[in-house]
Amino acid sequence: MDMHSIAQYGPVAIALGAFAEGETAVLLGGAGLALGLFDFWTVAGAAFAGSLAGDQFFFWLGRTRGSAYLARHPRFGDRVARISRLLLRHRAAFLGTYRFIYGMRGVIPFAFGVSDLNWRCFFLINLLTAGFWSVLFTVIGVHAGKFLTDPSVVARLPLLGAGAVLLLGLCLLLRRRLKHQS
Question: Which domain holds residue 162?
């Protein structure tokens, strides 16, 4: 997903991006908002719709096809059973935070679908967290867009990059020294 797709297809691209990958499309939509391409609630609404639909899709995929998938791939059975017990034991924490864990947006709803979690519970919490997530990432995207379109910031980006490389180098040097002292 890139800014050109977001600008050309607008809320549809944001919703599809939020369904498939999540943050990138919403952040770009927020940046488009900073550029005056969209209004806030169009971006947040598209992000909400795509995110909610994606998570519900993976939940129902787990609910309707998860057992058959696990039967065809028995090597995952023990792991999935262990993970399902963990998810159910800590369901409130996982339901509230899984969409913020990179790479888990499809996996955790699928696992909840395979588990005994009530679909109404998943849906209601998904409504709340999708709303919070969509507004949060739209706001972050707006601020990132304003930051990156400010000419004074753009002029300083090479300096910021050099500073980041220098800081990384110092951290690696410090780590090496501490490792050798141990």
Answer: 151-182
